[in-house]
Design a protein that fits this description.
By secondary structure, the chain is mostly helical. 67% of the residues lie in helices and 0% in strands. Helix 1 packs antiparallel against helix 2. The longest helix is centred in the middle third of the chain and has 37 residues.
Length: 81
C-alpha cells in the first residue's frame, strides 16, 4: 500500500520552519527600516538642499520621490511600539 501524503498544513519540515522564521525576521527588519526612512528622508533632503550639498534638479527630485515612494510602500504596514 502506498503512503498517503501529509495534508496537515501545520506539519512542516524543520528546514521549512527555519526558512519561514528567517524570512519573517528579514521582512520585519526591512519594513521597519523603510518606515523610519520615510520619516527621515524629508529631513535629510532639506538639510542637503539648505547646506548646498545637493541642488534641486529634475533628476534629484525624481530620485527623491522614487525613493520616498518605495520606502512608504514598503514600510506602510510597520507598527512601531
Amino acid at each position: 500500500m502506498l503512503p498517503t501524503p501529509n495534508t496537515d498544513p501545520h506539519a512542516g519540515s524543520t528546514a521549512h520552519q527555519l526558512a519561514n522564521t528567517v524570512s519573517q525576521s528579514i521582512l520585519s527588519t526591512l519594513r521597519a527600516s523603510a518606515f523610519w526612512a520615510t520619516i527621515l528622508l524629508p529631513v535629510l533632503a532639506l538639510v542637503l538642499v539648505v547646506t548646498g550639498i545637493v541642488t534641486i534638479t529634475l533628476l534629484s527630485s525624481a530620485g527623491f520621490l522614487a525613493m520616498y515612494s518605495a520606502c512608504a510602500i514598503a514600510g506602510h504596514s510597520h507598527t512601531p511600539y
